[in-house]
Amino acid sequence: MLNIGILASTKGTDMQAIIDAIDAKKLNARISVVISDKKDSYALERAKKHGIRAVFIDPKSKHILKEDDKSKRKELFDKSVAKELGKNKVELVLLIGYMRFVSPWLVGKYRNRIMNIHPSLLPKFAGITDNKVHQAVLEAKEKETGCTLHFVDETLDGGPIIMQSKVAVSKDETPDSLKKKVQKAEQETLVKALGLYRHGKIRIRERKVMVEE
Question: Was domain 118-213 assigned CATH 3.40.50.170?
Answer without folding.
Answer: yes
